[in-house]
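Practice problem: predict the structure.
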Amino acid sequence: MLVRSCAGGVVFHGEKVLVLKNEKGEWVFPKGVIRNGDYPDDVAVARVNLEAGVRARIVATAGRTNYEFFSVSRQRPVCNKITWYIMRADSAEVVPNVSQKFFEGEFIPVDEAMERVTYSQDKSLLMLSYQKYKECV
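Answer:
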């Protein structure tokens, strides 16, 4: 199994959180693979900007999640180990990056995001992140 270290952001603007819709129709948070000795926090900030066109800064760590899938292109299983950061956006403007296969994105109320986010572990991550975010601001 290929194991990849990744980093991502749960990004808030006021009382809303950023969600992105990918090519599979899944609503997710921005994240990416850590490469060449990059720092996880730098990767998370860069991926939020690349995937959603959102400039954000880290306010706290959120935790970690793992997920496994079968990569058709690699013809083997992959495990992504993701370090998550809680971030605060400077603006509510979102520009999904179609070249990164994100076709929709917006800041929405947390309760609405809880309904929309595809994966249960992302819902748990969101609730924990929102509680911590409220303590930080």
